[in-house]
Specification:
With 427 residues, the chain is of the alpha/beta class. It has three domains: 14-229, Rossmann fold (3-Layer(aba) Sandwich); 243-332, Orthogonal Bundle (Tyrosyl-Transfer RNA Synthetase); 342-425, RNA-binding S4 domain (Structural Genomics Hypothetical 15.5 Kd Protein In mrcA-pckA Intergenic Region, Chain A, Roll), CATH 3.10.290.10. It is built from 17 helices and 14 strands. It has helices at 14-22, 31-44, 63-77, 90-93, 108-122, 137-152, 157-160, 164-171, 178-194, 206-215, 255-264, 267-277, 282-294, 299-315, 317-332, 364-370, 377-385; strands spanning 27-29, 49-54, 81-86, 131-135, 198-202, 225-229, 342-344, 351-353, 360-363, 389-391, 394-395, 402-404, 412-416, 420-425. It has a six-stranded mixed β-sheet with strand order 1-6-5-2-3-4, with helices on both faces. β8 (351-353) and β9 form a beta hairpin. The longest helix is centred in the middle third of the chain and has 17 residues, at 178-194. The protein is globular and about 75 Å long. It starts with 13 loop residues before the first helix and ends with a strand.
């Protein structure tokens, strides 16, 4: 799909490109090398080859993943070739990054199924026509035992143990399987095979990216430029965005859900989302911050603009306008959404026999988790402890984990936080 053009192209001035491409970047090894490659690209008319690898261990993309995807788009905006590399071979090894123990290996069918879903979501940000899709099984599958031995001979164990994940496990006497050492080497060989100029990744990928930078000269190739993007905080503002923490904004979520979640973040976190999750320039963001500081721009208006921008990017402008109108109707005027999901107590494993002759009861953490109002039962308990759960307008106390089904009104309205509702029907 969309291989890069070989004919001579014109590119923006190097300083303009650098300013745009460096926005939100954490590591850049090195800026001087990137400048030289951009200058050479302008002289020759040849776009840079920019590689980003994805090992689709899970199918869903949230806003944290889009930080890297958006940086890929920035290179596309500047006219360069982006290679969306699907690690169908390396995915079978399992990336050990950030792991305190060996990652379970996926089957090839699982990797490919996840990859298809991943691609569909990624093209909500990337231009499909400007993106080259490659699978690293094309070359790694053909490398064979002899090829992997020769590849492994280009690196040493001492350097591999400099990696924090490996060093921590080694010092703790915990298992490191030999195949885990192959992962960064295989990822590095991807850069050799594709002859890339730049490789992008999250900050947690810095070691892996540098292995590629280290071994490329041994293949008589210039070392790739390495650029990393930061890990995005979740909507709680404290932990990294993670599905297990229940603090994500999924790009496939409904427009209204995305809009509402963005509006729930703190004013301070809003500017970081602007920086990492939009195409607004650094200068434009700083101008908005100055206006907010002077009081000429209300933070709420800036947040509405951010929510509209994100929803529009994933679902289109019409959906963004509708989501904004729905938000204003619900939160400015205190109305209940027009469409509220319902659950019927007569269906499914919702009811449990109560103790002490209380009849049938609903265990709230089970209900909230089952209906998607909380990421898990433990997350539901945290919401109850925070006073974020309401039944027909009355806050549910933390200690009231169970509701007696017989005392509920038919059509009782359960509200969780500011945006999530559930109507309970008895039959």
């Amino acid at each position: 799909m969309g291989a890069g053009s070989e004919k001579k192209k014109e590119f923006p001035p190097v300083d303009e490109q650098l300013t745009y491409l460096k926005k939100g970047i954490v590591d850049l090894l090195t800026e001087g090398e990137l400048r030289e490659r951009l200058q050479a690209s302008r002289r020759s008319g040849r776009p840079l080859r920019v590689k980003v690898g994805f090992d689709p261990s899970a199918p869903d993309i949230h806003l944290g993943h889009t930080v890297l995807l958006r940086k890929m788009k920035h290179f596309q905006d500047m006219g360069h070739e982006v290679i969306f590399l699907i690690g169908d071979f390396t995915g079978l090894i399992g990336d050990p990054t950030g792991r305190s123990r060996t990652r379970p290996q996926l089957t090839r069918q699982e990797v490919l199924a996840n990859a298809e879903t991943y691609k569909e979501q990624a093209f909500r940000i990337l231009s499909a026509a400007k993106t080259t899709i490659r699978f690293n099984s094309e070359w790694l599958g053909k490398l064979g035992a002899e090829g992997f031995i020769r590849l492994a001979a280009r690196y040493n164990v001492a350097r591999m143990l400099e990696r924090r994940d490996f060093r921590t496990r080694y010092e703790a006497g915990e298992s490191i399987r030999m195949h885990e050492f192959l992962y960064p080497l295989a990822q590095a060989y991807d850069s050799v095979e594709l002859r890339v100029d730049v490789e992008l990744g999250g900050t947690d990928q810095l070691f892996n990216l540098n292995v590629g930078r280290d071994i490329m000269p041994s293949y008589k190739l210039p070392p790739q430029v390495v650029m990393t993007t930061p890990l995005l905080e979740g909507i709680d503002g404290s932990e990294k965005m993670s599905k297990s923490m229940g603090n994500t904004i999924g790009i496939s979520e409904s427009p209204g859900e995305i809009f509402g979640k963005v509006m729930s973040i703190s004013d301070g976190l809003m500017w970081r989302y602007y920086l990492l999750c939009t195409d607004f320039s650094q200068a434009a963001i700083e101008t908005m911050q100055e206006e907010a500081g002077k009081g000429t721009l209300h933070p709420r208006d800036a947040k509405i603009r951010l929510a509209r921008e994100l929803v529009s990017g994933f679902h289109g402008e019409v959906a963004a306008r509708a989501a904004e109108e729905e938000f204003q109707r619900i939160f400015s005027r205190g109305e209940v959404p027009e469409e509220v999901p319902e659950i019927c107590l007569a269906e499914g494993p919702v009811l449990e026999p109560g103790e002490g002759g209380r009849g049938w009861v609903i265990h709230l953490p089970v209900l909230l988790a089952a209906e998607g109002l909380a990421a898990s039962r433990s997350a539901a308990r945290r919401l109850l402890a925070q006073g974020a759960v309401y039944l027909d307008g009355t806050r549910v106390q933390e200690e009231h984990l169970e509701m007696e089904a017989g005392r509920l009104q038919d059509g009782a309205l359960l509200k969780v936080g500011k945006r999530r509702y559930l109507r309970i029907r008895k039959a």
